[in-house]
């Protein structure tokens, strides 16, 4: 067996050049590794900070081979490489997490089937491949469901909400099948766990994060989540059992609903750094991106100790860009911009981490509180 541990100076191949690739590349460089990005777009967010690039499409076999040639290990920030592409990559270099895990997370049917098979509680769901399936699914889910495309959905895209019989009548005849229908969960809150698992099966979880979405896009994450310690333990154990059940090596975000009755239902998994883990960049000694690189290159996984409370707010184009000047002037706020030129509506342009002394994060925390109102100084002087 080849030694799974790579030494500094080795090259980590990252599939995808978005902000997650950018922040992973910085973490790799900090540990003395080269980051080499596969991206279809030479001027992507990761390009500015990476050691080198392969420019090519994710499904271009020749580009995948050129990319694999340049690297010692392969990981992802973009999950949607085709099955054939994953096979090509796996035939050439170690791929962490493995192609089979990517295949599960790419497809909501595969993901839900796998979670069901592992005995993980999820929302009730139905396979909807045709209008006939749709009629049955709506009936079974009592006309309260979210229809989601099985593949390529992100930030709430490809989703249609049905809250009543009338909504169903208004659905277009030509929905983008195949889809899944998911029963609407009346959740009390949404939480997530970032979990890292190393090449020797060692695991580490970050503190449970609480997430608030707006228009289907993550808006604010709070760390720690406002949940009882027992529930937080349970959430972490759930993430561990999923990572172990999938035999994952790398980093994975597990999104969960806390149902009104206090049960945890898993929403989805993402075997890569996750937006809800961005707070770790300023509130932990080892952040999610460093943990990702450590897991992938085989370095020890340290307990991800959180030294501060944190609120992360996404900066969504174009309106949130106006907040940058204030953030830059406010103590305790760390601005992270992704270098995207075009602030299109709904585009994630950056995020801000607001850092508070540990234990100081107040209870319910909304957008109005997020900027300026609760400057860390005013909290610590209380
Ligand atoms: N079954 C559901 N019940 C209630 N809310 C849901 C459900 N599915 C999704 N949502 C809401 O929509 C958000 C985005 O859905 P998700 O399935 O996570 O898709 P994406 O891949 O776009 O993140 C969730 O974080 C949650 O706020
Ligand atoms: Mg999600």
Give a written overview of the molecule.
With 382 residues, the protein is an alpha+beta fold. It folds into 3 domains: 11-95, Rossmann fold (3-Layer(aba) Sandwich), CATH 3.40.50.20; 124-183, ATP-grasp fold, A domain (Dna Ligase, domain 1, 2-Layer Sandwich), CATH 3.30.1490; 187-373, D-amino Acid Aminotransferase, Chain A, domain 1 (2-Layer Sandwich). Helix content is 29%, strand content 27%. It contains 13 helices and 17 strands. The protein has helices at residues 19-30, 61-69, 83-92, 99-106, 108-117, 131-140, 165-170, 229-245, 280-283, 288-297, 324-329, 367-370, 376-380, and strands at 11-15, 34-39, 52-55, 73-76, 125-128, 145-149, 159-162, 179-183, 187-197, 203-205, 209-214, 217-223, 250-259, 264-270, 308-316, 333-337, 348-357. The strands form 3 sheets. Strands 9, 10, 11, 12, 13, 14, 15, 16 and 17 form a 9-stranded antiparallel β-sheet that branches. The longest helix is centred in the middle third of the chain and has 17 residues, at 229-245. It is globular. Mean pLDDT is 92; it is low at 371-382. Magnesium ion binds at residues 255, 268. Adenosine-5'-diphosphate is lined by residues 123, 146, 148, 153-156, 182, 184-185, 190, 213, 216, 255, 267-268.
């Amino acid at each position: 067996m080849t030694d799974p541990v790579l030494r500094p100076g080795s090259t980590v191949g990252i599939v995808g050049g978005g902000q997650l690739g950018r922040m992973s590349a910085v973490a790799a460089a900090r540990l003395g590794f080269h980051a080499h990005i596969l991206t279809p777009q030479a001027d992507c967010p990761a390009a500015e900070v990476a050691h080198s690039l392969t420019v090519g499409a994710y499904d271009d076999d020749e580009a995948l081979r050129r990319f694999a040639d340049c690297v010692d290990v392969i990981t992802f920030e973009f999950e949607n490489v085709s099955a054939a592409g994953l096979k090509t990559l796996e035939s050439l270099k170690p791929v962490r997490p493995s192609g089979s895990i990517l295949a599960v997370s790419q497809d909501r049917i595969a993901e839900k089937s796998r979670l069901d098979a592992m005995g993980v509680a999820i929302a009730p769901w139905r396979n909807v491949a045709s209008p006939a399936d749709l009629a049955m699914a709506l009936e079974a889910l009592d006309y309260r469901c979210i229809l989601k495309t099985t593949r390529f959905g992100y930030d709430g895209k490809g989703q249609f909400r049905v809250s009543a019989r009338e909504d169903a009548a208004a659905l277009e005849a030509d929905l983008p099948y195949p889809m899944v229908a998911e029963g609407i969960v009346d959740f009390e809150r949404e939480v997530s766990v970032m979990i890292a698992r190393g090449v020797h099966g060692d695991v580490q979880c970050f503190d449970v994060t609480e997430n608030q979405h707006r228009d289907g896009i993550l808006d604010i994450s709070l760390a720690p989540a406002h949940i009882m310690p027992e529930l937080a333990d349970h959430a972490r154990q759930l993430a561990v059992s999923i990572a172990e059940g999938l035999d994952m090596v790398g980093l994975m975000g597990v999104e969960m609903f806390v149902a009104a009755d206090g049960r945890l239902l898993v929403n989805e998994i993402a075997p890569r750094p996750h937006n809800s883990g961005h707070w770790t960049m300023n509130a932990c000694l080892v952040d999610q991106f460093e943990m990702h690189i450590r897991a992938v290159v085989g370095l020890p996984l340290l307990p991800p100790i959180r030294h501060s409370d944190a609120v992360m707010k996404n900066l969504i184009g174009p309106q949130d860009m106006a907040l940058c000047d204030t953030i830059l002037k406010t103590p305790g706020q760390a601005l992270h911009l992704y270098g995207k030129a075009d602030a299109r509506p709904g585009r994630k342009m950056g995020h801000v981490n607001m850092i508070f002394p540990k234990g100081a994060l107040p209870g319910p925390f909304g957008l109005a509180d997020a900027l300026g109102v609760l400057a860390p100084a005013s909290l610590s002087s209380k």
